[in-house]
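Deliverable D5.2: sample structural annotation.
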Amino acid sequence: MAEQVRLALLDGEAGLRSALLRYELLERLARSARSHDVIVFAFGVAPYELRLILDGSAVDIRSVLRGVKSGTSRAARRIDVVIEWGPTERQVIAPGGLDESVAWAHSAPSLAGVPKPLASPWSSHRDLMGYRVAKFYDATVLAGRVDKTVVHRLARGGPLPRRPAPKQARPEGLNTLLRLAGATLGVLPADRRCFRLFAHLAKARGYQTSAVADGLALTTRRVRQLSAESEPRLTNALRCLADPRLRIVP
């Protein structure tokens, strides 16, 4: 049974502001959900609020939430951040109400002043609309369950990006391209899982192998190897690069 869940944090200085803490939270959520046979339909993160759409038994969902809260509190203490959880609100989603509930979760970043859902990496909206493929969320769980164009409209998403940035040299810095490559895969730019996409993206934007190697502190031989491998996410990254909303990355 699908539930709409709101986890509130008590006001404090930091809250869930750290990109590292947020990514760890989402990975923890995915692991806990898998271990309890709970499906994550949607998520949205704000500094003092976490919105989730979960499908599973009431007992299993409770176990997932308990694990997410306790694990996130411990992780926060490791970086000298204190998190205190407030009340948890849970509501069973009525038949036919999943589109609206997913849009509600995707609107969480608006609590921090983000005007459009695509302008934040901190919900599953980019994943649902096909602009990110992250290990911590599987957008296919909503296939046949929601109409993503309806969700986008309900979340006041605005016009969708249409065209990728042309594959030619542009003035973006390598740091910008690395951060965008990471965000397209749902990882921080220091994560090696985004290096191949970055190598392809930098090459498409006109950078030489030596410059990419220097940017990653890798050998030119290794960068050539990365560039020679297939990269299915390049078109997606170029599309994100062409839209100001999708260029907002951690």
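Annotation notes: The longest strand covers residues 2-9. Residues 2-154 form a domain with the Alpha-Beta Plaits fold (CATH 3.30.70.1290).
The annotation will be released with the project's public dataset once the embargo ends.
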